[in-house]
Amino acid sequence: MTLAANAPLADCPLCREEGGLLLLRRPQWRVLRVTDTPAFPAFYRLVWNAHVAEFSDLPPAERLVCMEAVAAIERVLREQLQPSKINLASLGNVVPHLHWHVIARFADDSHFPNPIWGEARRPVALPPGLDLPALDAAVLAALQAL
Is 4's pLDDT higher than 80? Predict the structure, then answer.
């Protein structure tokens, strides 16, 4: 039995709220740019719309749909920004609702090589010439092509 059809939970922040600046909503998932981490502006989140806690709660076909969207975001960040690394994370320790973090990381960002939730190693350094509206448009175009 799949848990992907679970109803929204009133006490779940990702059931109640978008979770960032909404770029695209599809029946199964939505993608947003995370706006509450100014030191990491190229930070996107894919949120599974149905309330499930774990990736393995999804049947195989839905796991594929989810990861194709995550990969599309990653490809755009790599093409547009040439980051040192892309971080993919599905932690859910604070919000146990399936979501993936897709974060462009740079060798001179404030936390690199630490996780963005770890200790800062240097002052914030934003990628030079970062055009967030253009980046959002490129992410949106890649997602719409799925």
Answer: no
